[in-house]
Specification:
Radius of gyration: 15 Å
Structural class: alpha/beta
Helix content: 25-40%
Order of helices and strands: EHEHEHEHEH
Shape: globular
Strand content: 15-25%
Strand order of the largest sheet: 3-2-1-4-5
Amino acid sequence: MLTLPLGTTIRQVLFLGAHSDDIEIGCGGTLAVLARSRPDVRVHAVVFSGHGVRAQETRAAIGRLAPACELEVHEFRDGFFPTEWSVIKERFEALKREHKPDLIFTHYQHDRHQDHRVVNELTWNTFRNHTVLEYEIPKYDGDLGQPAVFLPLSAEIVEHKVATLLECFVSQNTKRWFTAD
């Protein structure tokens, strides 16, 4: 089992998410632990699809989980990432020039959501010489894989993550999958 702070050689971490709430659901606990245990690490998060209220929600949630995290939110069309591949790839190339992450968190490669898969593929395509960990988003379509790495979370961090999700992502409260469990 892998534990944070992941050694002293980690200086920059990049979190990538297709949509507002993906990072927070998939690895928000890890983000919170990293922020608390390694304040010396530069953390940058990129959300590729966040519009209006959804962008505000992710800013609030990331701010609660990791107050010092640098966040950028883009407005690529939800559900259309495969058709916007080249424009999203350009943003990935800019990220590679702007940041030198020691560790990257991205979507699970076999996630059934097409936008999640595009972010995963572009992560591996762009950051070939980096340590990349994939996170999963538990959902009702059951596409969870066989994780190779577990990052343990304390009950306090889990409660903080769940409270943050439920309080910050009000727009998702009507979705049947958006529950505390």
